[in-house]
Amino acid sequence: MPWLMLFVAGLLEVVWATAMKQSAGFSRPWPTAVMVIGMIGSFWLLAAAMRQLPLGTAYMVWTGIGAIGSFILGVVMFGDALTPARMAAAGLIVSGILVMKIAG
């Protein structure tokens, strides 16, 4: 169950980061509200998962899911560049998450 909570917390991190981008500097109320609600849910689930998972593992997986998810949405939704170097960097993040999971 803690891994499921951590995964959902990571997905909510992608939600709030995307909503932050769409809030246009907090000038649009609905994306700003989605961001705040997403943050609360993400942090709450991260904290709940940390009751049973090591701090370093939980935090790395949470930020990794957020980073990779935001990277993918940035490319798909906002036209961010998809270069070989950025893809390699994303691959390194995924590799780090997998190694941390295996080591934990």
TrEMBL record:
InterPro entries: EmrE-like (IPR037185), Small_drug/metabolite_transptr (IPR000390), Small_multidrug_res (IPR045324). It is found in: Cell membrane. Keywords: Cell membrane, Membrane, Transmembrane, Transmembrane helix, Transport. GO terms for cellular component: plasma membrane. One of its GO terms (molecular function) is transmembrane transporter activity. One of its GO terms (biological process) is xenobiotic detoxification by transmembrane export across the plasma membrane. The chain crosses the membrane at residues 33-50, 57-79, 85-103. Its main location: membrane. The keyword Transport applies. It is a multi-pass membrane protein. Belongs to the drug/metabolite transporter (DMT) superfamily. Small multidrug resistance (SMR) (TC 2.A.7.1) family. Gdx/SugE subfamily. This is Guanidinium exporter. It comes from Paracoccus seriniphilus.
